[in-house]
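Lecture notes, unit on binding sites. The following record was shown on slide 14. It pairs a sequence with glutamic acid.
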Amino acid sequence: MTNKELADIMYPDVTKTIEDYETMYPERNLGEGAIVSRYAPSPTGDVHMGSLFTSLIESFLPKKFGGVFYLRIEDTDKKREVPGCVERQIKDLAAFGIVPMEGVMAPDKEVGEYGPYTQSHRLDIYHTYAKWMVEHDYAYPAFETPEELEIIRKNQEARKARIGYFGGFAKYRDVSNDEKAELIKSGTPWVLRLKSRGNYNRKCVINDLVKGKVEFPENDLDQILIKENGIPVYHFAHVIDDHLMRTTHVLRGEEWFPSVPLHIELFNLFGWKAPRYAHLSVITKIDETTGNRRKLSKRYDPEARMSYYHEEGVPVIATQKYLLTLANSNFESWLDQNPDASIYDFNFDFKKMSASGSLFDVEKLKNISRNHIARMSANEVY
Ligand code: GLU
């Protein structure tokens, strides 16, 4: 059986080709140096200081350099979804002046030519790319039960081998197409796995805008791309979405940094240019009792809660200015010299972002807020 025949059995409902999507979502017609960035929350929790910081920079860049800031909802984990979350996140961001130019504007309102912007509405797109991968021998169905995977893991531990589904441990990688087709036809549950061409002993150099040049081993894991229920995992969905939505810059939490080799492998096998990545470190503070640096925590630090700023009467623009001091340490001296300038006149520089985590300083926030209020008219203050 050919790969094409197997792909047809796996994805009988796919009617489009990947070329159709390339035509539907053409390159954006933007000027030189324009930035297309996105905020891509999962509707599993409320906005917190880390997401506010990331989304502020994401919305700042296209306003500064031209381009588009859009909002995409990454709702592929239905089990963890919190009802009402999308609406709350959009409102919370808007309360800090962060409003997308495109994408999800409200729970039932999407604006723009590159949608749908909600991942659960994009399954036909993901399946079209999945089918293409199977046809080109870049992916295959795998049928292990969780118990079988556990046995593979234990076996690796016993042999002191690297843990994961790769090479000789990837049981279904080299099983014949006929056998796989039979299993599918008999109703055996399956996931779609990448057929990795990577080599763990080769290096992949990532040029991150914040972390700089970092070497990782290439990805060689046959990672799951689409789960048993037909829903993609983050890695697969992000690559397809950021390509089709013509994103130029992906800013996200540093917890995603180790996954970049997989993302680069996916971009390469589709023949696409990867966006520029900027992995932002967590915001930290000095713990008053221990004197040690630790992650800003919603539980212990009032300033980590979004309501704090509204309760304390910190004007929106002062919060934005403060967050920019966390982003680029020279922002504060620029602000001192240009108190009335628009924040968009500031020369933002990724190289000035802290790779180890900016330090939150409430006194500085209050100072910026005071200075800002002092320059407001009596009417504005009222
Ligand atoms: N949905 C992902 C998260 O909430 C977004 C990561 C990204 O921006 O690509 O962590």
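Take-home: The first strand starts at residue 35 and ends at 39.
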